[in-house]
Amino acid sequence: MSVEYEQKNGLDDMTIEADVVQLARLTLEDKDADSRALIRKMLHSISRQCPELNAQARQVLASLKTANVTRGITASPIPVDSDSRLELLGRDNIHQLPIEPVWNPEVEAELTSVVKEHIHRSELEAAGVEPTRSLLFVGPPGVGKTLAARWLAREIRLPLLTLDLAAVMSSFLGRTGNNIRTVMDFAQKSPSILLLDEFDAIAKRRDDVTEIGELKRLVTVLLQSIDEWPNEGLLIAASNHPDLLDPAVWRRFDRVLRFPSPSKSEIAEAIKRIIGPSNNVKDSLIEALSDLYHGESFAEVERQMNQVRKSSILNRTALETAIIRLLIDSARSVDVQNKATIALALMESGLSQREVSKTIGISRDTIRKYKPGVKAGDGGHNVKGK
Q1: Residue ranges making up the domain that contains 59
Q2: In angstroms, how far is CA 68 from the centroid of its own chain?
Q3: If you average pLDDT over residues 225-231, what whole number do you get?
Q4: What is the rounded end-to-end Cα distance, in angstroms, of the chain?
Q5: Do 48 and 132 reside in the same domain of the chain?
């Protein structure tokens, strides 16, 4: 019907005003296909007649094309396990992120490169080159692997399908392999990003004598699927325990991204993004927090900061006040260097050296040793310059 609509009654001669009225009517009548056809016609016309709007019109046309491509997988029912009737996949078409993620430069460069390849996929294919089709994310829990998959889905504008491991794994012999094949077939029907989280649970080393034959056959199925993944989508596997993966798995992925634990500077940046720019928290307090949480994952930092934000709201105090309280409470159980960093941050926030010493249990002489500018020969440490 959409093609008929574009050809009906001299559509190309209609004015923009008439187009808008017609679009409103089609939208109210829930005639989605006709609405999209009319939008395409209007955008092509605008692109020709208004050079200054050409770039924006082309961008919307590209988005409309992507939306049309993904409608099939968005509308299709999620496959289920034949016994439990649990859905084998989770589906996310919106890709709202809690905060903009923070990664180290190497990871960020790799992810940005993948996005660029898929945005310009047609140019690569015309030159006989394929874009990245498969990614293996490895690293400890909470460092941003799942968030990276969601970020890629948002940037490439594809639906994100996430394997539900609990639903896929079955106690019935042969059922797990069938579920995996069903998931793979479904994800390849239309362009999408498939995330296989906890990949080590289904791609274990085939020389593991504790595993039954079915899981060893399952690895072979996975390897074949990785090799055959279509250019239009992405297959992402994520593992917290890469040492458990079958050696053959590593060679099959186009790229392997290693997500390290965050550095202090990355933790500080994540804290700034979580609390937001409008809260005016002093840099010294954020630095003290990044020292306190050094060695923790992004997920743990986010959990702690959200607890502070809730405390601030419920107690009707400024966020900075809630952070100071957190630092005071935490200072009792940290080493002397972290304690000194917290002490200096509290002093910059207005507390006297005497108050800080008494509150967190650190001598004033120790605080002086860690003040910036103290020479190493005097027994001090420059916290900010370490």
Answers
A1: 2-75
A2: 24
A3: 88
A4: 69
A5: no
